[in-house]
Every structure is written in structure tokens, then in C-alpha cells.
């Protein structure tokens, strides 16, 4: 609650500043809020500082809250190229701050009804951001896809939450405990479909590449950095209600995820549009977190959350880089972007670092997550190792191919590129997205249940 | 027939080339950047850097152009990216962003992770406590863990009629 009050007070103070100073002031406020939210990470179980009538925060919530605040601040920092596009930039600040406010509450709230309302309400600011500041006319169908998938998938969840509330007499999620003996697959599907679409899980991923391609840089950063993680957090809370006993439904979802990881990596290999490539890479990475979550084991939960948090930093970093690079050459084609890398060689270094982090090269925490998730899956069915081996080969292949295309393509197009288009502000944003991974690496066992 | 096939192949090659040309040039969007091309005195292309002789020529042109330049003059300033027109505001914003996004989170983060999250989940405590209990039980000659750790008389098991309706799965 203190965090929300601090956010409201800071926003009120920022309103009285000069229009030009408001951007940097809001960015700095997000940094302060992120530092403040680290207080909620104290101790095992529920955080004492967060307890109130409406809110209750444990390690899963607090990590997502800190990630939300960090990523929303970064999205404003990197969105300077949107100042001259349609709409007023200050309305972008308001939309992002509102979205962050809703996200923080969504991760803090302790009732199922409020969680559902906040889960759905995060769609509105994002759709507005894509609709107002998106690049092309295709942004309208992309918003339609995103809204249809999200709302359609989560409508059964509303019915289930209503039933649970009537049955239990309360929607306080920490008290509800459902027996799983007489539940059918329709019920399981209704419970988890909305979150699986949000993550996104194969085969419900079709909306993500469209949304990412049409979204502006800041919108892609928020979508990849935190909005996808809403699905993982929702799955964690639903599994808490069922005491982590999913049995055969969990095995079905894990099977789809394994196929989805290979599918995502294969689709990355054949992409020429950088944003679509990063979107499909998100699909294959989120498959690992789904495997970890639905394994219903402590090791799986740790692996899933390490992936969720690490991916929340790395994927926005890739989108920031693609935004910088594509802004230089006015194209999202990878081979064309190589001209930008040739003109500003520092971009080549940043691309290498981010691609390696995305691939899971140690000491990036992604490798820990992949190992833990693989351990969970192989413990159930050892022959799955064949598919996972395919995934690792394909992910290495597309990462290597991406780096080579960006840095080693023979010049085909004559293009004028100005090296002063890569500002220190953008480099700072990349650094701010990379250094928190050290924190994830050193405290990777925080998400183990007691 | 052969002539027809030859002409079709040639046409297909031309179409593919045209398609590749269109694909390459169709994915451009309007730059939303505020930067004007006229700001830079000597525009260059990436081939000027990639080719060694052209790179040397460019280097000579740049040295010739900038030989009398004062490096500290305002027009040669490299902005941080926050404010193009006022250098003091630009520098101030750069420093404030680094203060609020690096210095404060690192200090607060290290403080919290070392003091508040120290021994997260009481793991170190539990290991110490286990060793102390083990030493104590060794001195008394007791086993580390008793067979009946929980008193069997306090355990309530379900009856056979209750278990009949349940699907019991035993995983080994």
C-alpha cells in the first residue's frame, strides 16, 4: 500500500513541473519506486511490510512488482523517438504510468475478483499505446487479435472465479483450496487458458508476433518485459488454489510447451523481420517457464521464475536495440540493419551481448532456468530429451545466424547512416536492462518454496 | 515448348528479383526521429568505412575539415540525448537518471539483499540448528531421528470405507 501511495504522491508532484522536465522526472520516479519495491522482498512467506486488507505480497509477487516498475521506466526512457509522432507524448507518460499502477496492484492484490479485473484492465492502456503510436496501418488488426485472444481466453476464467467465490464464500485467494479429484479437462482448460494465451503458450501464440511488430519500441518493451509475465504469475496463483496437483492436465500442457519451444526456435531461424524474430524467441523461452510451472515441483517453480525475470530484462533489451538500429536504417529487415551496425560498431557489441544473454550463455541466469526446467521434464519422460536437444541446436543456430546477419552481411544497399543517431541515453537504457541480471544470478534460489 | 519454358524461367527470375527488390525497400517507415540531416557536416555511407582506401580518404577529408575546429565549442558538443539545445539541462538529466537508476537501486539493493534477505528462508539457521541437535543427541546416545517422530496414537487415518471412493496413486 505504501508503494501505491508513494506512486500517487510522486505523480501529483510531477504534474506541476515543466512539460519538458516531466519525462525525465517520471523516469526518475520509476527508479525510486523500483528501489522502494525492493523492501517487499524481505523474508520467506508473505512480506510483512506489504500486509493490508487489500494486498499481500510474497516473493513471486514482489519480483514481478519490481520488474514492472523497472521495465515501465525503461520504456519511457527509450521512447524519445516517439515525440513527433501522432498524439501528445505526455499522454504516453500517463498511459504507461497508469499501466504500471494497474500491474503493481494486480501483483499485490489478494482476492481473485480484483485480480481478474486488474488482469483484464491492463489490456486497455497497451491497446491504446499500440493504436496511437504503432508504426503501420496493420496495428488495428493486431490490436483486434490481441484483444480477442486475451478476452476470449479469460472469459471462462471469470465464470470459474465466480463459481469459486460462491462455493468458498470468499475470493480471498490465500484461503481458497479446491479439491482436484472430480475436476474435468474443461474446467482445467477454463482455469488456465487465459494465462496460457497471455504467456503465450503454443498453440495460442499467434497474437504476439503481430502485436510486437506493430507496437512502438516502448510498447514492445512493456509487452515483452512484464505483460507476458502476468500469465506466469496467474498460473502460479491458480496452482496455489489447487495445491499444486494438476496431474494429467499438467503433462498435456508440458507436452505442448516442448513442441512450442522447438516450433518457436524454428520460426526464429526463418525470420527476416527482427521484431518477429524476437517475438518468436519469446514464445520458445516462455515454453520453458510453462514446463517449470506445470511440473508442480519446487525445482520447476524456481526455473520458471528465473526465466520469467531474466526474460523480462533480456527481451526488452533486444527490442531497444532493434528500435535503435531500425531507426537508423528505417527498416526492420535484419540484412538492412547490418548497415547500421557497420556505421556504429558499438551496436555490434551490444547485439552480441544481448544475443548471448538471450541464448543462455553463462553467467546469464537463463542457463540456470533452462537446466532446472529440463531436469523437471526429463524426470517425467526421459525420451523428451531428443526434442529439447533439437531446441538447443535450433536456438544456437538462430542466435548465431542473427549475429552473423547483423555484423557480417556483405553490403548490398547504399544507405546514408549518421553515427550520432545512437545516443548515450539509449546505451544507458541497455545497461539498465542488463545489470539487474547480476542480482538474479546471485539470488537465483529466492523462488524456492519453504 | 522449350522456348516457352525458357521464357517462363527468365520471367520467373525477373519477377523474383523484382520481388526481392520490393521486399527490401518496402519495409521502411517514417522516421520519428527529430534529428536533421543538415546537422552533420560530412555525411558518409557504410561503404566508406568498410573499404580501406575509402576509409583513409574519409579520414583525410575529416582531418582537413576539422583541422581548425575548437573541440570544446558548443556546435561540437555530443549530446547525452536528453536535451539537444541546453547543455546544462542535458548533463543534469543524464546525471539524475544515473543517480536514480544505478546508484540508489544498487545501494538499496545491496543493503536489502545483505541484511533483509540474509539467510533467506532460514536455511543457514536450520543447518546450524540441525548440527547442534545432532551433537546433543550423540551425547545422549539417541538416534538422530526417532522412528516414531510423531506419536502414532495421534495420527488419524481414514477408514476403509472412505478410501474406497478415492483413486489412490502411489508414485515411487
UniProtKB/TrEMBL annotation, chain A:
Its EC number is 7.1.1.2. Keywords: Electron transport, Membrane, Mitochondrion, NAD, Respiratory chain, Translocase, Transmembrane, Transmembrane helix, Transport, Ubiquinone. One of its GO terms (biological process) is electron transport coupled proton transport. Coiled coil: none annotated. It is a multi-pass membrane protein. It catalyses: a ubiquinone + NADH + 5 H(+)(in) = a ubiquinol + NAD(+) + 4 H(+)(out). Residues 111-389 form the NADH:quinone oxidoreductase/Mrp antiporter transmembrane domain. The keyword Transmembrane helix applies. The keyword Transport applies. It holds the Pfam family Oxidored_q5_N. Residues 4-104 form the NADH:ubiquinone oxidoreductase chain 4 N-terminal domain. InterPro entries: NADH4_N (IPR000260), NADH_UbQ_OxRdtase (IPR003918), ND/Mrp_TM (IPR001750). Belongs to the complex I subunit 4 family. Core subunit of the mitochondrial membrane respiratory chain NADH dehydrogenase (Complex I) which catalyzes electron transfer from NADH through the respiratory chain, using ubiquinone as an electron acceptor. Essential for the catalytic activity and assembly of complex I. This is NADH-ubiquinone oxidoreductase chain 4. It comes from Magallana gigas.
TrEMBL record, chain B:
The keyword Transmembrane applies. Pfam families: ESSS. The keyword Electron transport applies. InterPro entries: NADH_UbQ_OxRdtase_ESSS_su (IPR019329). It is a single-pass membrane protein. Complex I is composed of 45 different subunits. Interacts with BCAP31. This is NADH dehydrogenase [ubiquinone] 1 beta subcomplex subunit 11, mitochondrial. It comes from Magallana gigas.
Amino acid at each position: 500500500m505504501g508503494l501505491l501511495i508513494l506512486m500517487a504522491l510522486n505523480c501529483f508532484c510531477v504534474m506541476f513541473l515543466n512539460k519538458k522536465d516531466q519525462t525525465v522526472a517520471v523516469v526518475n520516479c520509476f527508479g525510486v519506486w523500483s528501489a522502494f519495491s525492493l523492501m517487499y522482498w524481505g523474508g520467506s512467506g508473505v512480506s510483512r511490510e506489504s500486509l493490508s486488507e487489500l494486498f499481500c505480497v510474497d516473493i513471486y509477487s514482489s519480483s514481478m512488482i519490481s520488474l514492472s516498475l523497472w521495465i515501465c521506466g525503461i520504456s519511457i526512457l527509450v521512447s524519445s523517438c516517439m515525440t513527433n509522432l501522432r498524439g501528445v507524448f505526455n499522454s504516453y507518460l500517463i498511459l504507461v504510468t497508469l499501466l504500471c499502477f494497474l500491474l503493481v496492484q494486480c501483483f499485490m492484490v489478494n482476492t481473485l475478483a480484483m485480480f481478474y479485473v486488474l488482469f483484464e484492465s491492463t489490456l486497455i492502456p497497451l491497446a491504446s499505446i499500440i493504436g496511437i503510436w504503432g508504426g503501420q496501418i496493420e496495428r488495428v488488426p493486431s490490436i483486434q487479435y490481441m484483444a480477442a485472444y486475451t478476452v476470449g481466453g479469460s472469459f471462462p476464467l471469470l465464470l470459474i472465479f465466480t463459481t469459486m467465490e460462491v462455493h468458498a464464500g470468499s475470493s480471498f485467494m490465500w484461503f481458497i483450496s479446491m479439491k482436484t479429484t472430480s475436476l474435468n479437462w474443461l474446467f482445467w482448460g477454463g482455469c488456465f487458458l487465459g494465462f496460457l494465451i497471455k504467456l503465450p503458450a503454443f498453440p495460442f501464440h499467434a497474437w504476439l508476433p503481430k502485436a510486437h511488430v506493430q507496437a512502438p519500441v516502448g510498447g514492445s518493451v512493456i509487452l515483452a518485459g512484464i505483460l507476458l509475465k502476468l500469465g506466469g504469475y496467474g498460473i502460479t496463483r491458480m496452482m496455489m488454489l489447487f495445491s499444486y496437483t494438476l496431474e494429467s492436465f499438467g503433462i498435456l500442457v508440458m507436452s505442448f510447451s516442448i513442441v512450442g519451444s522447438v516450433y518457436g526456435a524454428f520460426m526464429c531461424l526463418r525470420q527476416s523481420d527482427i521484431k518477429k524474430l524476437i517475438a518468436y524467441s519469446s514464445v520458445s523461452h516462455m515454453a520453458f517457464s510453462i514446463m517449470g510451472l506445470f511440473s508442480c515441483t519446487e525445482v520447476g517453480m524456481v526455473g520458471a521464475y528465473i526465466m520469467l525475470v531474466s526474460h523480462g530484462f533480456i527481451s526488452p533489451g533486444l527490442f531497444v536495440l532493434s528500435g535503435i538500429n531500425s531507426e537508423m536504417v528505417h527498416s526492420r529487415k535484419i540484412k538492412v540493419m547490418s548497415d547500421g551496425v557497420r556505421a556504429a560498431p558499438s551496436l555490434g557489441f551490444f547485439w552480441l551481448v544481448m544475443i548471448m544473454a538471450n541464448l543462455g550463455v553463462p553467467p546469464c541466469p537463463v542457463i540456470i532456468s533452462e537446466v532446472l526446467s529440463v531436469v523437471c521434464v526429463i524426470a517425467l519422460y526421459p525420451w523428451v530429451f531428443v526434442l529439447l536437444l533439437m531446441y538447443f541446436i535450433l536456438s544456437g543456430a538462430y542466435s548465431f545466424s542473427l549475429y552473423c546477419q547483423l555484423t557480417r552481411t556483405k553490403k548490398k544497399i547504399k544507405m546514408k547512416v549518421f553515427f550520432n543517431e545512437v545516443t548515450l541515453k539509449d546505451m544507458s537504457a541497455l545497461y539498465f536492462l542488463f545489470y539487474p541480471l547480476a542480482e538474479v544470478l546471485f539470488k537465483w534460489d529466492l523462488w524456492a518454496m519453504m | 515448348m522449350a522456348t516457352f519454358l525458357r521464357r517462363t524461367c527468365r520471367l520467373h527470375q525477373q519477377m523474383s528479383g523484382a520481388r526481392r527488390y520490393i521486399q527490401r525497400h518496402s519495409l521502411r517507415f517514417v522516421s520519428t526521429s527529430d534529428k536533421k540531416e543538415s546537422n552533420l557536416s560530412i555525411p558518409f555511407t557504410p561503404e566508406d568505412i568498410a573499404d580501406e582506401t575509402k576509409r583513409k580518404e574519409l579520414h583525410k577529408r575529416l582531418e582537413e575539415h576539422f583541422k581548425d575546429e575548437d573541440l570544446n565549442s558548443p556546435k561540437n558538443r555530443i549530446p547525452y540525448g536528453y536535451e539537444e539545445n541546453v547543455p546544462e539541462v542535458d548533463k543534469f538529466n543524464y546525471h539524475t537518471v544515473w543517480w536514480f537508476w544505478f546508484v540508489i537501486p544498487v545501494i538499496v539493493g545491496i543493503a536489502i539483499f545483505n541484511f533483509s534477505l540474509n539467510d533467506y528462508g532460514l536455511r543457514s539457521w536450520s543447518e546450524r540448528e540441525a548440527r547442534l541437535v545432532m551433537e546433543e543427541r550423540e551425547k545422549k546416545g539417541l538416534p538422530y531421528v526417532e522412528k516414531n517422530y510423531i506419536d502414532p496414537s495421534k495420527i488419524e487415518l481414514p477408514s476403509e470405507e472412505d478410501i474406497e471412493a478415492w483413486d489412490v496413486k502411489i508414485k515411487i
